[in-house]
Amino acid sequence: MSQSDLTMGSHPIVLERSSPFAIPTKKLAMWLFLIADAATFAACLVAYGFLRNGSINWPTPFKFFPTVVNAMVMTFILVTSSLTMFLGVRSAKLGDRDAAFRWTMLTAAGGAIFALLHIREWMGLIDEGVRLFRNPWGSGLFGASFFSITGLHLTHVTVGIVVLIVVGLRHKNGRSDADDMEITGLYWHFVDLVWMFVVPLVYLLNISK
Amino acid sequence: MALAQQQDGGATPYAASLGKYLLVYVGILVLAGLQFVIAYQHADVRATLFRMLVVAFIEAGLAVVFFMHLGSENRTFVTWVAVVTLFVLAAMQYSWTDSFRMEKDAPPSYRAPSTQAGPSQ
Asked: Which of A118, A142, A195, B14 is 20 to 30 Å from A24 at the Cα level?
């Protein structure tokens, strides 16, 4: 059947090739992924809240130093990396490939520092005796919820670092366009956004009094 | 708006002055700092949680609208994202009442022997 066969009376049927909502398909796919990912994190946080609320001996072990200070530094780094990511996408959209590469690598470096600080914190907690199903202070589910939520977030950061480096290099070499940078940026901002909920719920509600 | 963005490769929202985005960045940092201040007020857990969540939602809103540029996307798309996300988040809240049973009426296996009132297991 040829294009000319597609008629309705005297009016030709126009084949709709544009993306739904008039946004690029890859960007739409990323938004769909982010909605699903938001639901995943929300489910983890709700489950954590349920366990915390339902436990009679939920531990509140986090001291100002090192844990809360560490969380402050990590928050600063991640929020700042969101700004550098924005600047990278902006440079890409405005056609400055070198600047886009520099900002993207700076964002990846911020993510790497964040990940290292996170791993250091995990090591500290493991040294104190926190395991997935036991800890020295109270409900054994504390470790399970803490490690699973922060671990899921750390996995996202790690994947993000790899994607930033790959997309940054490809964009610099002209093998990907500004839309790819924008989609990567959406993912990175989402990782930052999730951290804004992880800090108050998982860290700040568990500070020692 | 969406059609104009398609024509210029989506550069329109990024061409605005950097000042606005720096202000958003500082705003998010200040709000993040506010969460730490709220945590050290040592108020009731529910009040603390409520205040910190309000601040977190404002931070997230700033990030979504300005850094992720959801505000400059097609309005139907924005509505769709908001409705789907809020519905999914709301649907997860059905089980909270059960989480209070330890506070209100602990199951027999968790009660001290002297306080057991119900039938023994």
From this structure: A195
pLDDT tens string A76-95: 999 999 999 999 999 999 99
CB-CB neighbors (< 8 A) of B39 in chain A: 68, 200, 204-205, 207
Is B105 within a domain?
no
Q: How many helices (H) and strands (E) does chain B have?
A: 6, 0
CATH no., domain A25-53+61-206: 1.20.120.80
- Measured distance CA(A78)–CA(A110) in Å, rounded: 7
**ipTM of this predicted structure:** 0.88
Q: Would you state the structure tokens that stand for residue B71, as one six-digit string?
A: 């505000």
Q: Which residues of B touch A184 (CB under 8 A)?
A: none
Indicate the helix (H) or strand (E) that contains A170. Answer: helix A141-172
Q: Is the pTM of this model over 0.95?
A: no
Residue B51: which domain range?
2-74
